[in-house]
């Protein structure tokens, strides 16, 4: 028997091959056992099986039919696994959040508590204001102009707080699409210079930061981050109202070449497509993980304010 040509990577073509073989097997079973010749057309290559006695051809077709059935089944399962998205939901109420101050005079380096001129706190499981009955209150205060507080949580990798350690280093390389979905609420948002929402990935010596910030006192515009350590204005308007829940959806991707792709920003039902791509930055080769961030910044006249976050979900696939 000639070697079987493997089915196409296209799922539909795989099943078409199986269907044709299945039909050929049924036709062969109806034939007599006379020394007839049956020609089986292979879907790929349009080649024909060499003339064989009917019984040999029937066995040939029968084996190929079930071979393709199992190949197609495995392909279907693999495609399903690949297409399946995972959502970490209600992250605002989960453990593992850490807060750090940052100052312009220190190059925005991490300033652990106590950080002179910047104070912060976090209160989880707030029932009101809340959409789920389980929001989190992020507070910032102090006297340092433009001081900010970065809240971060390691979701995947060596520092995972959610039990997804990826010790074998097999999960992160397969992830290419991310959706950051959250609601936020502030009683006096004009006190904020910016509100920042990020996803960061560290892998194989590369640092991919999908950083987005809504400039409020800073000019009512969305900015995105690139690896040259600067914010890029998008020209997209951003002025979330106070005293109501604002719904934010950010869509990011990692390209096949490992670059950072900003796909879209949706705020309160209005979507803006970005499709901006930047090269990754560098990171220590030992770093391996995925983090999610929420950041609050004070303006030039620093005053304390609070932001409530609810229904914070991260979907990846």
Question: How is this fold's topology laid out?
Answer:
Blueprint: H1 11-30, H2 54-83, E1 86-88, E2 98-102, E3 110-111, E4 118-126, E5 135-142, E6 148-157, E7 177-185, E8 192-203, E9 206-215, E10 221-226, E11 230-237, E12 246-254, E13 260-267, E14 270-278, E15 281-282, E16 289-298, E17 305-316
Helix pairs in contact: 1-2
Structural class: alpha+beta
What's the average pLDDT?
Answer: 83
Fraction of residues in helices? 10-25%
Please give the count of helices: 2
Percent of residues in beta strands: 35-45%
Element-by-element helix/strand order: HHEEEEEEEEEEEEEEEEE
* CATH architecture classification name of the largest domain: Sandwich
CATH class category label of the largest domain: Mainly Beta
- What does the radius of gyration come to? 28 Å
Give the uncertain stretches in residue-range form. 1-15, 31-54, 75-82
Coarse morphology? globular
> What is the count of structural domains?
2
> Separation of termini?
41 Å
User: Based on DSSP secondary structure assignment, what is the total number of beta strands?
Assistant: 17
The name of the CATH topology of the largest domain is Jelly Rolls
CATH superfamily of the largest domain: Galactose-binding domain-like
Biggest sheet, open or closed, and with what strands and sense? 9 strands, antiparallel
């Amino acid at each position: 028997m000639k070697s079987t040509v493997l089915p196409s990577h296209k799922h539909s073509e795989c099943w078409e091959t199986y269907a044709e073989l299945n039909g050929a097997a049924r036709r062969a079973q109806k034939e007599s056992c006379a020394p007839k010749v049956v020609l089986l057309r292979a879907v790929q290559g349009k080649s024909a099986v060499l003339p064989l006695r009917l019984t040999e051809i029937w066995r040939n077709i029968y084996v190929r039919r079930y071979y393709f059935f199992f190949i197609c089944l495995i392909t279907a399962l693999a495609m399903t696994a690949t297409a399946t998205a995972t959502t970490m939901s209600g992250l605002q109420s989960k453990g593992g959040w850490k807060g750090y101050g940052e100052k312009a005079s220190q190059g925005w380096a991490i300033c652990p508590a106590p950080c002179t001129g910047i104070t912060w706190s976090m209160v989880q499981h707030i029932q009101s204001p809340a959409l789920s009955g389980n929001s989190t209150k992020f507070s910032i205060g102090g006297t340092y102009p433009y001081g900010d507080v970065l809240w971060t949580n390691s979701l995947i990798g060596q520092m995972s707080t959610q039990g997804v350690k990826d010790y074998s280093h097999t999960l992160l390389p397969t992830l290419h699409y991310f959706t950051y979905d959250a609601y936020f609420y502030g009683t006096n948002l004009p006190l904020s210079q910016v509100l920042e929402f990020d996803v960061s990935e560290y892998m194989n010596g590369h640092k991919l930061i999908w950083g987005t910030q809504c400039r409020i006192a800073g000019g009512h515009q969305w900015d995105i981050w690139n690896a040259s350590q600067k914010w890029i204005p998008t020209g997209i308007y951003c002025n979330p109202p106070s005293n109501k829940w604002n719904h934010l959806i950010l869509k990011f991707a990692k390209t096949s070449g490992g670059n950072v792709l900003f796909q879209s920003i949706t705020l309160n039902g209005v979507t803006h497509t970005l499709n901006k791509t930047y090269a990754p930055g560098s990171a220590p080769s030992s770093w391996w993980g995925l983090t999610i961030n929420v950041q609050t910044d004070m303006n030039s006249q620093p005053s304390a304010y609070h932001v409530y976050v609810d229904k914070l979900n991260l979907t990846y696939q």
